[in-house]
Amino acid sequence: MFGSKIKLDKELLKKVKHYSDLAGYSSVEEFITHALEKEIERLEESESEEEIKKKLKGLGYIS
Fold it and tell me: CA-to-CA distance for 16 and 10, rounded, in angstroms?
């Protein structure tokens, strides 16, 4: 990553580290990048903006 930084809750970061190791990722960054790419791909497959909003609501990202 080229200077990008995000902050994660300590407990979430602990889980991310644990599962990235279990899954065999070379780094936490690689795990997070892969997870984000998969989620974005899933959202891009949606047919409409309303469908995307519905999915995001279902995931608890928006209310």
Answer: 10
